[in-house]
Design goal:
Blueprint lengths: L2 H36 L7 H11 L1 H18 L7 H30 L7 H48 L1
Length: 168
C-alpha cells in the first residue's frame, strides 16, 4: 500500500478521534441539557443516559486504535502475521460491546419511560445503532477469515520458497 494512502487513512482516524472526543465532551452534554429542558418529565434520565452515551463511543475509539495499529503493520509489511489477529479480535469485541450498550440503553429507557412512553426516534436510533454495530462486527469476522487464509498462504509460500532454494 502506498504511503500516501496510509497517511491519509491516519489523518482520517485522527479527525474521527477528535470528532468523537468533541461529541463526548461538548455535543452530548449540550444535547442532554437541551432535552432536559424540552422534556422536564424525563429530566431524571439525563445523567444516566448521558453517561451511557459517552461510554458508548469508547468502542469506536478502540476500533480506531486497532485500525491505526493495523495500518502501521501494513506499512511495515507485517499485517499477514499472527500479531494482526489481536487487533482484529479487539475490533470484533468492540463492535459487540457497542451493540450490547445500545440494546442495554434501549431496554433501560423503555423501562424507565413506561408511563410517558419512549420517543420512537430514540428507540429506532438505538436499535439501528445496535444492528449497525452487529453488522460491522460480522463484517470484521469475515475479514478475519480472509486474514486467516492469507496468513496460511503466506506460510505455505515461505515453505515452498525454502524448498525451491534447497533444490537450486
Amino acid at each position: 500500500m502506498k504511503p500516501v494512502t496510509t497517511g491519509l487513512l491516519r489523518a482520517v482516524i485522527v479527525l474521527l478521534v477528535l470528532g468523537t472526543l468533541l461529541a463526548q465532551l461538548v455535543v452530548l452534554p449540550d444535547l442532554s441539557l437541551s432535552l432536559e429542558y424540552r422534556y422536564p418529565e424525563a429530566a431524571h434520565l439525563r445523567v444516566p443516559t448521558l453517561v451511557v452515551s459517552v461510554i458508548g463511543l469508547v468502542p469506536l475509539h478502540v476500533v480506531l486504535v486497532c485500525v491505526w495499529r493495523l495500518v502501521g503493520m501494513v506499512r511495515r509489511d507485517a499485517v499477514f502475521s499472527p500479531a494482526a489477529f489481536r487487533w482484529v479480535d479487539a475490533m470484533i469485541w468492540s463492535a459487540l460491546a457497542a451493540a450490547a450498550l445500545a440494546l442495554g440503553l434501549l431496554g433501560w429507557l423503555t423501562g424507565a419511560t413506561q408511563d410517558t412512553g419512549l420517543q420512537p426516534g430514540i428507540g429506532l436510533t438505538l436499535l439501528g445503532s445496535a444492528v449497525l454495530a452487529v453488522g460491522v462486527g460480522l463484517l470484521v469476522v469475515v475479514l478475519r477469515g480472509l486474514l486467516v487464509k492469507a496468513v496460511g498462504w503466506k506460510g505455505e509460500a515461505t515453505a515452498l520458497r525454502a524448498e525451491l532454494d534447497e533444490v537450486i
